[in-house]
């Protein structure tokens, strides 16, 4: 306390830029607070936060890996750089990541990578399911379900996955064993898994968005989109909101807490073919049947850039470092820095000869782009795509079995509830603007509503029960009706007074 | 073309031998760790639920006394040692860790009203009783007192000086005795009929405080042999405890169900008011850290407070524990002792959900993290409800509800009077910390 106050502002601009990444929100203006105790408390809190931000920025020095890059020299263009040229100039480890699986019999393939980027799941349209560790080549399982498979998705880790088959959604083990049949999810076209909420979101031809909690097995909610059949779905990893692309060119944003979409945006003049959201939750790219590829700012719901693809794009993906991958016809194009500035040419290009691209995905924490096409599955190297430094406690590509089990338990303990999903994930713990009277009134209204709802439900139930059992002849009913009859007779008899004997009665 | 692709070598990330620790990489970038606030909230919720699940504060009961336990004193230097005096005149010295009596004696003919430890470097202790005697004992020399002092009237309380062979008793007047003299060297009296309790300050060793039936607390200084000041309150104070860290602060357990924290230098206003009991507070004791107090009340409950908060952080009660007359905080600040009417001394944990024993550093870090998370989210409805939930005996709950109704209606009426009458509106509001204080005299 006796030390003189030093000016704690960071002088180095690189460090200052790093610090801005760790600053969560603006500092509290504590100098205006009148109460001395509160002012002191806030001042100490702000000091602690400043120290934490500075230490975090300085700790970046300890990060081991650096991101990849591809730089053109002279008159060379990066988009002319082919994968075979690249594999000659990089190390063996990286050139082994360029592979192609020829599977021409089983139709266009959907692909999915686990969150740590280690395991690859492929699903062929005619029912070929397989999963393997693509870095070591170890096959987990290979199975034919002999049925249409529209989409496949890993669940929380490489032990479980979901496949959207012809009629229902099935959950399998990593040995290919079918574990569950989700019969409430029908005709599903797209699957999404929200890892921090343990929710499986499905959307299908009926236009219903259904959320299933896979840790408790409960169907959380079914939402009628009322916008027809939907085949395009993506989640916003920053706030767990589901983005759906519809046939009339609108993109709607959904949370399980509201039966109507939170936001509806008119994006294209035709069908929305593909969607992708970047990991910071700031940019969304949409591709439509009109050939347009638009980049939107999700926080302000404004269009930032408009590009076009020669053929309508079938799939989009955004990497951890902000590279945009577009799959159209037999091509895969990767655009760099495409959000804030308008780029005139892509970063990299790849052609898969005579095979239409079905599904593309950037591999987390790797400079690799995996995609499924009509004749199999391929993987190409895109330098600078993946986040170089992973956090073992978040997603660890070098996870052992025990670490996997423990992280599963920890993530289940930290599981978020579906009613926490909102457009702003930082709202938890914030001060509410409602006054105490408003809060009490809201609580009272809620309680009253609950009571009337309960009463209505009970009333309906009894009415239904009575209606059903109207014509049922039960022994007890007969007893009671007999009893009634007897009592009625008795009453009538009691009412009837004994007749007085008159002279006319001699003739009875 | 300059190209470099991300290529990790597994020996940087995988351990070499199975005896090695696993390698952990950390990247604090918030993009990799989404939903920070939500996850912390869920962790805080789990913490608070686990705390309530593990809240089992009762450790054990020391039984042996036949009559109720009316006075207790902990040993100033030995952790596991404690003396208690009961209503039939018996004194027992206990080993708290073994929960058994190490020494006992039928000390007096009446209720043992006060026990205290002797000067710090001796193994002696003293007891005073309603049979007008004060006796000095030593556990090593059998069950006969070393010295007996006979007074003129029944003694109500006893306190020994920190180092010098002096002790003070309270009865008709506050007397200061020298151990070598059989008559008191000072007799203080300032207006009261009789004095309930007396306490020496263990830090400023010449200061002495006493409470009297005239609802006063009087402070004396031995160096000037004069009373310093006195504060008159609305109701009588039952007990006093000096803060072992801040020498000028003391807590006063009052009959009006509150405990007041006073600064000796300025007694016009209390420093803090500890509310929550529904009957007279009988005894109060400070934790050795000076940050917490324990109070025992006539309503059969024991409450623990934080010094800078006005409401209890925890409440302990049992069907078998009757009126509590004495409480002690153990010298490692982890346990609390209560002596009650039913003759048992109960040992409780100061933090109800704390795991006892040595904890691994990993566990300690996790507990510290969990505590700070709970602190951050404690204002939120769900968490506050679970954290505040304590099962209480039915009559305590009823009395509390009645008290709240009465106080809130009085407050409402006062506010209405202020709103609708100019005369009342001009009257200044009295702060809660001054409400019970009538005056200070020097």
From TrEMBL, chain A:
<keyword id="KW-0539">Nucleus</keyword>
<dbReference type="InterPro" id="IPR040315">
    <property type="entry name" value="WDR46/Utp7"/>
</dbReference>
<dbReference type="InterPro" id="IPR036322">
    <property type="entry name" value="WD40_repeat_dom_sf"/>
</dbReference>
<dbReference type="GO" id="GO:0032040">
    <property type="term" value="C:small-subunit processome"/>
</dbReference>
<dbReference type="GO" id="GO:0030686">
    <property type="term" value="C:90S preribosome"/>
</dbReference>
<dbReference type="InterPro" id="IPR015943">
    <property type="entry name" value="WD40/YVTN_repeat-like_dom_sf"/>
</dbReference>
<protein>
    <recommendedName>
        <fullName>U three protein 7</fullName>
    </recommendedName>
</protein>
<comment type="function">
    <text>Involved in nucleolar processing of pre-18S ribosomal RNA.</text>
</comment>
<keyword id="KW-0853">WD repeat</keyword>
<dbReference type="Pfam" id="PF00400">
    <property type="entry name" value="WD40"/>
</dbReference>
<feature type="domain" description="BING4 C-terminal">
    <location>
        <begin position="346"/>
        <end position="425"/>
    </location>
</feature>
<dbReference type="InterPro" id="IPR012952">
    <property type="entry name" value="BING4_C_dom"/>
</dbReference>
<dbReference type="Pfam" id="PF08149">
    <property type="entry name" value="BING4CT"/>
</dbReference>
<dbReference type="InterPro" id="IPR001680">
    <property type="entry name" value="WD40_rpt"/>
</dbReference>
<feature type="compositionally biased region" description="Polar residues">
    <location>
        <begin position="1"/>
        <end position="11"/>
    </location>
</feature>
<keyword id="KW-0677">Repeat</keyword>
<feature type="repeat" description="WD">
    <location>
        <begin position="265"/>
        <end position="306"/>
    </location>
</feature>
<keyword id="KW-0698">rRNA processing</keyword>
<dbReference type="InterPro" id="IPR019775">
    <property type="entry name" value="WD40_repeat_CS"/>
</dbReference>
<dbReference type="GO" id="GO:0000462">
    <property type="term" value="P:maturation of SSU-rRNA from tricistronic rRNA transcript (SSU-rRNA, 5.8S rRNA, LSU-rRNA)"/>
</dbReference>
<feature type="region of interest" description="Disordered">
    <location>
        <begin position="1"/>
        <end position="27"/>
    </location>
</feature>
TrEMBL record, chain B:
<dbReference type="InterPro" id="IPR036322">
    <property type="entry name" value="WD40_repeat_dom_sf"/>
</dbReference>
<dbReference type="Pfam" id="PF00400">
    <property type="entry name" value="WD40"/>
</dbReference>
<feature type="repeat" description="WD">
    <location>
        <begin position="62"/>
        <end position="104"/>
    </location>
</feature>
<feature type="repeat" description="WD">
    <location>
        <begin position="105"/>
        <end position="147"/>
    </location>
</feature>
<keyword id="KW-0687">Ribonucleoprotein</keyword>
<dbReference type="InterPro" id="IPR020472">
    <property type="entry name" value="WD40_PAC1"/>
</dbReference>
<comment type="similarity">
    <text>Belongs to the WD repeat DCAF13/WDSOF1 family.</text>
</comment>
<dbReference type="InterPro" id="IPR051733">
    <property type="entry name" value="WD_repeat_DCAF13/WDSOF1"/>
</dbReference>
<dbReference type="InterPro" id="IPR007287">
    <property type="entry name" value="Sof1"/>
</dbReference>
<feature type="domain" description="Sof1-like protein">
    <location>
        <begin position="350"/>
        <end position="437"/>
    </location>
</feature>
<dbReference type="InterPro" id="IPR001680">
    <property type="entry name" value="WD40_rpt"/>
</dbReference>
<keyword id="KW-0853">WD repeat</keyword>
<dbReference type="Pfam" id="PF04158">
    <property type="entry name" value="Sof1"/>
</dbReference>
<feature type="repeat" description="WD">
    <location>
        <begin position="274"/>
        <end position="315"/>
    </location>
</feature>
<keyword id="KW-0677">Repeat</keyword>
<feature type="repeat" description="WD">
    <location>
        <begin position="317"/>
        <end position="358"/>
    </location>
</feature>
<dbReference type="InterPro" id="IPR019775">
    <property type="entry name" value="WD40_repeat_CS"/>
</dbReference>
<dbReference type="GO" id="GO:0000462">
    <property type="term" value="P:maturation of SSU-rRNA from tricistronic rRNA transcript (SSU-rRNA, 5.8S rRNA, LSU-rRNA)"/>
</dbReference>
<dbReference type="GO" id="GO:0032040">
    <property type="term" value="C:small-subunit processome"/>
</dbReference>
<feature type="region of interest" description="Disordered">
    <location>
        <begin position="388"/>
        <end position="430"/>
    </location>
</feature>
<keyword id="KW-0539">Nucleus</keyword>
<protein>
    <recommendedName>
        <fullName>DDB1- and CUL4-associated factor 13</fullName>
    </recommendedName>
</protein>
């Amino acid at each position: 306390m006796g030390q003189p106050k030093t000016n704690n502002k960071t002088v180095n601009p690189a460090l200052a830029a790093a610090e801005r990444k760790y600053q969560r929100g603006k500092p509290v203006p504590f100098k205006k607070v009148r109460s001395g105790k509160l002012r002191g408390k806030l001042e100490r809190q702000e000091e602690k936060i400043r120290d934490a931000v500075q230490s975090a920025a300085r700790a970046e020095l300890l990060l081991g890996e650096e991101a990849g890059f591809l730089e053109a020299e002279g008159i060379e263009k990066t988009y002319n750089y082919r994968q075979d040229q690249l594999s000659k100039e990089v190390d063996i480890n990286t050139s082994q990541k360029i592979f192609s699986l020829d599977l021409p019999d089983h139709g266009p393939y959907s692909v999915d990578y686990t969150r740590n980027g280690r395991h690859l799941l492929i699903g062929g349209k005619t029912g070929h399911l397989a999963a393997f560790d693509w870095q070591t080549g170890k096959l987990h399982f290979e199975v034919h379900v002999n049925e249409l498979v529209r989409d496949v998705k890993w669940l929380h880790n490489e032990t479980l996955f979901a496949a959207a088959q012809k009629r229902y959604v099935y959950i399998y083990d990593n040995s290919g064993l079918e574990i569950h049949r989700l019969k409430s999810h029908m005709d599903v076209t797209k699957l999404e898994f929200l890892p921090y909420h343990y929710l499986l979101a499905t959307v299908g031809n009926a236009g219903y968005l259904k959320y299933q909690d896979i840790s408790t097995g409960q169907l959380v909610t079914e939402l009628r989109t009322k916008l027809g059949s939907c085949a395009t779905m993506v989640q916003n990893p920053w706030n767990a909101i589901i983005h759906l692309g519809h046939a009339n060119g609108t993109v709607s944003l959904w949370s399980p807490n509201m039966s109507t979409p939170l936001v509806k945006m008119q994006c294209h003049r035709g069908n929305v073919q593909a969607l992708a959201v970047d990991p910071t939750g700031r940019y969304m790219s949409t591709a439509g049947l009109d050939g347009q590829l638009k980049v939107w700012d999700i926080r302000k719901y404004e269009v930032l850039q408009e590009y076009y693809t020669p053929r309508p794009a079938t799939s989009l993906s955004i990497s951890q470092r902000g590279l945009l991958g577009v799959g159209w016809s037999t091509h895969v194009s990767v655009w760099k820095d495409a959000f804030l500035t308008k780029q005139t040419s892509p970063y990299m290009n790849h052609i898969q000869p005579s095979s239409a691209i079905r599904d593309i995905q950037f591999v987390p924490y790797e400079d690799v782009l995996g995609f499924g096409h009509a004749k199999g599955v391929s993987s190409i190297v895109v330098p600078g795509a993946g986040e170089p430094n992973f956090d073992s406690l978040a997603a660890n590509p070098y996870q052992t079995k025990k670490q996997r089990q423990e992280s599963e338990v920890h993530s289940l303990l930290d599981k978020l509830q579906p009613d926490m999903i909102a457009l702003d994930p930082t709202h938890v713990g914030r001060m509410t603007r409602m006054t105490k009277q408003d809060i009490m009134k809201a609580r009272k209204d809620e309680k009253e509503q609950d009571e009337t709802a309960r009463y209505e439900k009970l009333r309906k139930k009894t009415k239904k029960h009575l209606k059903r059992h109207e014509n049922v002849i039960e022994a007890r009913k007969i007893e009671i009706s007999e009893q009634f009859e007897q009592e009625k007779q008795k009453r009538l008899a009691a009412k009837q007074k004994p007749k007085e004997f008159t002279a006319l009665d001699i003739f009875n | 073309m300059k190209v470099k692709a991300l290529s990790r070598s597994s020996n940087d990330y995988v351990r070499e031998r199975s005896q090695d620790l696993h390698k952990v990489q950390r990247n604090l970038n918030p993009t990799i760790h989404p939903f920070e606030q939500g996850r912390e909230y869920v962790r805080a919720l789990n913490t608070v639920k686990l705390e309530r699940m593990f809240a089992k504060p009762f450790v054990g009961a020391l039984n042996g006394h036949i009559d109720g336990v009316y006075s207790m004193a902990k040993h100033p230097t030995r952790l596991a040692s404690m003396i208690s005096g009961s209503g039939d005149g018996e004194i027992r010295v206990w080993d708290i860790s073994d929960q058994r009596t190490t020494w006992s004696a039928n000390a007096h003919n009446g209720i043992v009203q006060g026990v205290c430890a002797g000067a710090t470097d001796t193994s002696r202790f003293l007891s005073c009783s309603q049979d007008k005697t004060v006796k000095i004992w030593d556990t090593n020399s059998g069950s006969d007192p070393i010295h007996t002092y006979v007074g003129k009237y029944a003694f109500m309380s006893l306190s020994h000086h920190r180092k010098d062979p002096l002790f003070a008793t309270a009865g008709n007047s506050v007397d200061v005795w020298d151990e070598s003299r059989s008559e008191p060297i000072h007799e203080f009296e300032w207006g009261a009929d009789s004095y309930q309790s007396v306490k020496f300050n263990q830090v400023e060793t010449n200061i002495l405080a006493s409470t009297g039936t005239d609802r006063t607390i009087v402070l004396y200084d031995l160096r000037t042999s004069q009373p310093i000041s006195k504060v008159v309150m609305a109701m009588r104070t039952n007990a006093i405890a000096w803060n072992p860290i801040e020498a000028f602060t003391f807590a006063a357990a009052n009959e009006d169900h509150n405990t007041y924290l006073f600064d000796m230098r300025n007694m016009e206003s209390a420093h803090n008011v500890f509310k929550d009991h529904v009957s007279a507070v009988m005894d109060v004791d400070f934790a050795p850290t000076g940050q917490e107090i324990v109070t025992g009340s006539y309503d059969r409950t024991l409450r623990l407070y934080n010094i800078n908060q006005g409401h209890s952080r925890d409440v302990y009660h049992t069907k078998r524990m009757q009126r509590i007359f004495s409480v002690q905080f153990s010298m490692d600040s982890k346990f609390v002792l209560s002596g009650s009417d039913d003759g048992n001394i109960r040992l409780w944990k100061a933090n109800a959900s704390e795991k006892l024993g040595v904890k691994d550093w990993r566990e300690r870090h996790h507990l510290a993290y969990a505590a700070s998370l709970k602190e951050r989210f404690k204002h939120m409805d769900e968490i506050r409800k679970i954290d505040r939930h304590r099962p209480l005996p039915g009559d305590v709950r009823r009395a509390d509800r009645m008290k709240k109704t009465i106080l809130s209606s009085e407050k409402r009426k006062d506010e209405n009077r202020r709103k609708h009458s100019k005369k009342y509106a001009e009257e200044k509001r009295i702060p809660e910390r001054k409400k019970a204080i009538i005056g200070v005299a020097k």
